[in-house]
Amino acid sequence: MNVTQMSCCPKRSETEAVLVYILLSSISVLTAALNLLVIISISHFKQLQTPTNLLLLSLAVSDFFVGLVMCFQILLSDSCWTLGDRMCTLYGVLDYIITSASVGTMVLISVDRYVAICDPLRYSDKVTVRGVVVCSGLCWVCSLLYNSVVMKENITQPGRYNSCSGECVIVINYIAGVIDVMLTFIGPVSVIIVLYLRVFVVAVSQARAMRSQRSGTFLAKRSELKAAKTLGVVVVVFLMCLCPYYCSTLTSQSSSFSATTVPLESWLFYFNSCLNPIIYAFCYPWFMKSVKLIVTLKILRSDSSETRIL
Predict the structure, then answer these.
(1) Are strands 256-258 and 169-171 parallel, antiparallel or unpaired?
(2) Is residue 228 part of a domain?
(3) What CATH number does the domain containing 145 carry?
(4) Which of 5, 11, 27, 282 has its Cα between 20 and 30 A from that of 231?
(5) pLDDT in tens, 154-164
């Protein structure tokens, strides 16, 4: 496969470089900090450790790593990769693993909401804390193994596709690229859309049934409907940020990834990881309550994990 030749160290004006670094550093720190608050909240407070919230925890972990991965890009000196070929490969592999894990977690969230809304009577039997932990763990393990195979050549021979010093290029062959797009974009996104369309239809009909106060109809709880609405926003925002990233991949002539020239659609995907905790802040009262306890260090009390948050 031919790799597009690029300038390894394009020059920027000092003012432009400072503005870009300040902006990206702010997004990186904010992304890591906000998602760390989500991780601490759900991990610490026992009342928050529901199946749905554990899926949000898995998503927050991937979003937290996105914030850290952004630091690799910010550490570049004048748009040159100065961290060596091995770190270049590590950066590329982490980027792919996090993307796959995020998409997989979104599928699990869609399944969770589908069961909660469409089969509320058996939700507690079908969706358990243990089951969610196992599924989330498998999602991460499969993402790690899958991307290790896809990027085997880059891992075994770091820097093999670099054309000059200061460049960081990751390349996967055409067949692997097509399979990757099918498994990590087209397939999962199709499942997410189908499930949430079904959830939307059922939620609307149940909302009407609640307003008309029909008896004898088994309906999902209002809290489940609210959670479906909130997570629906998360899913829609995720798809809006993800689609440009993969559409760019589909329209490009080569399956290459360059750390020294990260396109706008990649930053849009990264920024999505910052938006999720902001959505929680507006839609989940428990998140703001837990943040106050964390910031005021009240979680250091011995019995703080038993605090009523909901």
Answers:
(1) antiparallel
(2) yes
(3) 1.20.1070.10
(4) 27
(5) 888 887 766 66
